[in-house]
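Worked Example 4.2. Consider the chain below.
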Amino acid sequence: MSIDVSAAKLPYADRVLPVPRRCTFDPDDWQIIARYWYPVAIASEVTADPQGVTLLDQPLVIYRFEGRIVVADNLCPHRGMQLSLGKAFDDGLGIRCPYHGLRFGAAGACTAIPAHPTNKIPARMNLHAYGAIERYGLVWTCLASLPSDPVEMAAIPPVPHWDDAGFQQINCPPIDVAAFAGRQVEGFLDVAHFAFVHEASFADPENAEVPDYTVETTPDGFEARYLSSMGNYPHSTGLKADPDYVWLRHFRLHVPFTATLVIDFPDGTKLSIMNAASPVSAKQTRMFDARVRDFDTDGPLQDVYDFNQQIFEEDRAMVEAQKPENLPLDPKLEVHIPADRSSIAYRRALRALGLSTFFTV
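Applying the procedure from the previous section yields the following structure tokens:
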């Protein structure tokens, strides 16, 4: 298997990116993964007031200005203050640095310096801003992008069935995991752990055998159609899976850290889930979830949130305990079994990006 993705073909490959202070990644590897798009917030939760987030060790500030979202470095160019400690002006026209009151608006442009209201504003006083796109109920950004870049340049992975008629769009609350994003994504793709890790939530501990399945390459990763008799009903519903029904789980992996899963239910309905692992650092990940379903569309969303939380808590216990903390890309460093086809394909896809074996520290 080979994937036609190389460092020379990376998005925004012509741009030199400054590596963050105290970067927890290998600098060369950071230069590769920083050129992809990641979610950093739930779009509906972004207001005119600034909020701070971190992506790939880079502190960012997010705010909404005239209906558009701004993502920029969380650093006032004047005296290095965290802008996320500031607030929005009462007129809604920008955010205010808490130290000297400098005002910032569209694309992070400095629009006022209260100490010198009539002076010309230096161009260097503008914030370093990034592209920001609202999609699937999430705010996405890329540390190699610019606000002026065409939207078409943003290679944001799709959520299957998101815009299909009859499907309900849902964003579960983000979940923080004290683990590397690659470990979490690999766990999402893993089909051999259901019977052991998810016994309390949906799986059958007596149904641990993994039927054979294949992996097919795609331009930015791979997909796998996994057929098995393992049901997907939450135990809390009391529903029992028909042992003769073959469930289809269609996985798609988009390098480096996003995967989707579509589950076909016996009555013909579907559940489509995006698992977007946004790396805060090499050892901290914020999980974003965008999903759609064409069943129970009038049911309480809290039930969805609670079940998703239960699943991720079960996975979290495993991922946070794995050693090494990061993901070994050298195939000789761990022993593999046939059920690992997806994880082997995932690691191979990461190596094809030009990444080193840095995931072994």
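Residues 1-8 have pLDDT under 50 and may be disordered. Residues 226 and 249 are 5 Å apart (CA to CA). Compare this with Example 4.1 before moving on.
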